[in-house]
Amino acid sequence: MDRPMPDVTTGIGAAALKASAAAGPIAIFVLLVGQMLSGETLAIRVGPTEVGNAMGMAVWFSIGAMIIALIPNILGAMLMGWASARNLGLRHPAAWGLVGAAVMGLPAIAIDGAGSADTAALAAMGALNALVCRMGVRWASASPTV
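Below the sequence we write its predicted structure tokens.
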């Protein structure tokens, strides 16, 4: 019995690279939002030197985050691309976001507990990173969620 070939998934490498490049800014954004929502105030004096130092540190942080995120993003994009080629429901961006949140959030729940702000931040980073990755993946046959 002949089985139809699954759709060919394209753009996985480029999508994983874009998601890895976005990992640093996403992490900085999520950490800043988490700090603002925590209600804790940081009373520090900020001058031009401190702003310049913070910008330089953000660049180095983004480079480090890209290096750390590259392998997980490649593996995740390959796995989700393969699964999405076989199941149309997994092509939806919400599925990618949920998988990204689970991959980052579940280990954090096991270590830190479900109510932790750090766990929520890691889950948010995983979801946003997976959504950036999903933006670049395409399949040979068009479907409503592509």
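The two ends are 29 Å apart (CA to CA).
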